[in-house]
Every structure is written in structure tokens, then in C-alpha cells.
Amino acid sequence: MQQTKDGGFILGGYSNSGITGDKSESNKGDIDYWVIKLDASGFFQWDKAIGGKDEDRLFDIKQCKDRGYMLGGYSYSGIGGDKTEANRGVLFTDYWIVKLKQEEWVSTVWVNSNPLICLNSNCSNYLLSSYNGAIEDISSGSSLLFGANVNDTSTEILNLPFSFSFCGTNFSQFSVSSNGIIGLGDQRISATSVNSSSFPNNCIMPWWDDLNTGTNGSVRYKVSGISGSRKLIIEWNVRLNTSNFQTYDRSFQVWLFEGTNKIQFAYSYQSAISGGTATIGIAKSYRDFLSVDSYHSTTSSDIRNDYNSWVPTVNFVLSTCTNNAINSGARITFTATPTNAGDSPVYQWKKNNNNVGENSPIYILIVL
């Protein structure tokens, strides 16, 4: 393996596999040289099988000054396939040197789709970012939802101060649980403290765990800003549920933004303590969710993470591509502009690493 001039990586080896997995070309003979190109992030770009009719094994690959590649290995093959010279021996192998021209020879032209385009109808399309900051002081002008000594309780249905779009649906109502979870819509969020069962529908979870407000805690909310750019802040001052109520030891907030429909989780620095197995994230349903690993600041839409034991020391933002949101049935046109691709490049479009489209510089995607 060698790092290439574009910041990616070139890998060389040998294979007797046909077209399968990451291998896009059939075998030429027994065993072939196999070259793989990765981008700077380690993602697969293209591969190439090179060989004769018999066994050919690649052991070294280097990029040249002209951005081509020099391959070195040995071969049992005679003339045939990619081998243009006869073997010099009968029972023994020859050295086989292959020169690949600069990447204009590659049969696939790779382009990146617009990274701002996303579908807002699924939780997996939300983008996670983190930042350092503090919770907002809402002690003045806020409305009390729960006071001290409250356990496993949820509010009645409340009206949102503005329309809020979540996973492609506009909501005008919400409810709040003392256990660190919000429900959107006209169905009251459950007060359950069990976070290992199925996700409730349309819920936001800054810290869903078995919590209570303690002897001096609370859950409250406040609306700030002017019409068109308002912010709803919901704050929990709570502790892990125990048989004896004590003072609260952790504070966190959810911020919902009008217009951008951004979701922000903020945590008090003083609450950077361990304990509990909390769930952080959002869910449209038990199958459509985005779960946050607070320790690594990563997300998953496949595996639930309900073991966050440390209240985060950083804050999280979950945002959608509001200005470029695409609705079901929309047609998206992608156009490839190749560079260093020769006079007659061959195009292969890929979606989720599967071949799609035709041999054309234009690919049209219809959103389902």
C-alpha cells in the first residue's frame, strides 16, 4: 500500500475471485494482479484486475511522477489476457513488470454528490455536530412543568409556540417526561423510565434514563427570540432515581429552533458525572432512529446505544439540510465533469456502492 498524490491510497495484491464484493472485474486466469484505489478517507474508488491465463502474483506497487503506477510481481502466464510477451521459462516464473498510465485509464469517473442534499423524512438523515458551550440560564421568564420530588411523570399535551418539522412532519404539540424525553404530536409521551424497550414515536431524547427531580430540582421551559426565529428551551434539573430523594446533580436542555428545525442538546459542565445507562438521540419510530454515543460523539441508525453513562461535557446539534430538503418523488440530476479522463471516458455511477445508471455523464435519481 502507498499513499497517492491525491491524498488517497493505492493497494496491490493478487486474487482469484470473480466479480463479487469489492471486485468489479472478472478474473483473467488462475490468479491475477489486483489493484485497489481508495480516497483520502479510506473509501473504495476503483479496482483493476490484471493478468494472463495462468498464475500472476503482484508483490509491489508504486506511483510514478506522471501519476501512473508501476507494478512488480511474477507470472506463469504466456501471451494472453493482459500479458503481451511469452514466458521465458517452462516450469519457472518470470518477473512481470506492468506500467499503468496516469489515472485517465480508469474506466470509472468518480464524482461526489452535493453533500448538502439530504432527505428530511428519516432520522438517519440528520447530521450530528458537537461544540463546547453552556446551558442557557432560563431561571427568569420560564414556565414550570415539574417541581421537586417528581418521579416517572409526563405532562399533558402542550402547544408548541411555533410549527416544528421533525423527520418530514410538521408538529404543533408536544409533551415532556421527567425522565429526559420529549414527545412530539398529539400522543402524550410515556412516563416510563425504561429506555431499553422500543423507541416511542416522534421523540427527542437528550438524556432518557430513570430520573427524578430530587428535593430541589425541576423541569421547565422557556420561549425566546422573535417570531420567525424563536427558540424553545426545555430544561431538566434531575438526578438518577434512587429510593431516597436527594438534591439534583445534573442539568441539561433541549433547544428547538423555529425555521431551521434544528435540535440542540446542551449539558451543564458541573453535571459531567457518571452513572446510569441513558439513551441520547431522536426517533421517528422504533425502526427509524438516530442514536448518539456521547463518549465518541458518533451516531448510529442501525444499533441502539442505551449505555451512555457519562453526562456529556460537550453539546450536540442535530440538523437537517433545510434549504436543500428533497421531497419524495423529486428528480435529482447529477452531472460528472471528468478531469484527466482521456478523450472517451467511460462512466459508471454508483449508489451505496452498487452500479446504477448508464454510461453517461448525467445520472438522474428519482427520490422514492
Low-confidence stretches: 104-119
Number of spatially distinct domains: 3
* Number of β-strand runs: 27
Give the DSSP E fraction (strand runs of 2 or more residues): 35-45%
Cα end-to-end separation: 39 Å
Architecture overview:
- The protein is mostly beta strands and 368 residues long.
- It has three domains: 2-105, no CATH class; 123-324, no CATH class; 331-366, no CATH class.
- Helix content is 0%, strand content 42%.
- It is built from no helices and 27 strands.
- It has strands at 2-3, 9-15, 32-38, 44-50, 56-63, 69-75, 94-100, 127-131, 143-146, 158-166, 169-177, 181-184, 203-208, 211-212, 218-224, 231-240, 250-257, 263-267, 274-283, 289-293, 298-300, 308-310, 315-319, 331-335, 349-351, 354-356, 362-366.
- Strands 8, 9, 14, 15, 16, 17, 18 and 23 form an eight-stranded antiparallel beta sheet that branches. Strands 10, 11, 12, 13, 19, 20, 21 and 22 form an eight-stranded antiparallel beta sheet that branches. Strands 1-2-3-4 form a four-stranded antiparallel beta sheet, with no helix packed on it.
- Residues 104-119 have low confidence and may be disordered.
Show the helix and strand layout.
Elements: E1 2-3, E2 9-15, E3 32-38, E4 44-50, E5 56-63, E6 69-75, E7 94-100, E8 127-131, E9 143-146, E10 158-166, E11 169-177, E12 181-184, E13 203-208, E14 211-212, E15 218-224, E16 231-240, E17 250-257, E18 263-267, E19 274-283, E20 289-293, E21 298-300, E22 308-310, E23 315-319, E24 331-335, E25 349-351, E26 354-356, E27 362-366
Antiparallel strand pairs: 1-2, 2-3, 3-4, 5-6, 6-7, 8-23, 9-15, 10-11, 11-12, 12-13, 13-19, 14-16, 15-16, 16-17, 17-18, 18-23, 19-20, 19-22, 20-21, 24-27, 25-26
